[in-house]
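Try this one yourself first.
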């Protein structure tokens, strides 16, 4: 998978992308990331990339020209190349969207700044607008990092064990069960005895029940869409005192 990030601040990405799982995926050649600095495509001695909004109002708007010239400069890779604009006006980015995007050959991520991006970028050149949540950030760069991280984890070979992301939170619409590691007692809190029992079936059931319990407590909205089998429904009924 190739990611291309169109941004005014390519340096914001370097340390994050060097580390950990993403760093390894890059060095193994499973993902490849390029940066295109919008400033390079600004015109005039000051390489201007923003301007005042038509109609008045506060703040500055990113000009369409530099962004579109940056976009045109990027080599299209593979059959499926998708252009994404990071903006608070976009569709909320969630795990199902990450799976969809992971099937592309190339993702080109445009990071807006200031009050926003000239509407004509969105109208003619963007396949999808994504928001990482209902809050306003100073720019799309953090959103791009979030998308790159979540999508890369789904690419075969990026995580150590192929199966490990299938148990992650959200994969079946539920939050993940709690994890414990050594020591067995920490600040007076014991590891739940079932995890030490060696009984894999009991452990599986306990984890499933904890997963449903957490979802019920923290994100009851997710339960409406979750893929629950009859065993899960029985657990949920018990938790709800039915
Ligand atoms: N740019 C500013 N706020 C954003 C958000 N919530 N998601 C994605 N891009 C953004």
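Now uncover the answer:
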């Amino acid at each position: 998978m190739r990611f291309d990030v169109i941004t005014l601040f390519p340096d914001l990405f370097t340390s994050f992308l060097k580390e950990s799982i993403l760093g390894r995926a890059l060095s193994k050649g499973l993902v490849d990331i390029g940066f295109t600095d919008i400033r390079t495509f600004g015109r005039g001695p000051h390489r201007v990339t923003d301007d005042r909004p038509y109609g008045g109002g506060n703040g500055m708007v990113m000009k369409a020209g530099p962004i579109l010239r940056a976009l045109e400069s990027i080599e299209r890779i593979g059959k499926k190349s998708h252009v994404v604009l990071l903006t608070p006006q976009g569709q909320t980015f969630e795990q199902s969207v990450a799976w969809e995007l992971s099937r592309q050959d190339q993702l080109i991520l445009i990071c807006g700044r200031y009050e926003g991006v000239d509407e004509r970028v969105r109208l003619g050149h963007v396949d999808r607008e994504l928001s990482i949540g209902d809050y306003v950030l100073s720019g799309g760069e953090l959103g791009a990092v979030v998308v790159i991280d979540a999508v890369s984890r789904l690419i075969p070979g990026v995580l150590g064990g192929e199966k490990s992301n299938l148990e992650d939170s959200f994969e079946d619409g539920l939050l993940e069960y709690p994890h414990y590691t050594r020591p067995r007692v920490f600040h007076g809190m014991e590891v739940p005895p079932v995890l030490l029992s060696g009984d894999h079936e009991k452990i599986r059931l306990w984890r499933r029940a904890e997963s449903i319990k957490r979802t019920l407590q923290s994100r009851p909205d997710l339960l409406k869409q979750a893929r629950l089998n009859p065993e899960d429904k029985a657990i949920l009924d018990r938790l709800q005192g039915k």
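Discussion: The pocket of adenine is lined by residues 86-88, 112, 131-133, 135-137, 139-140, 143 (CB under 6 Å). The chain has two domains: 2-152, 169-239.
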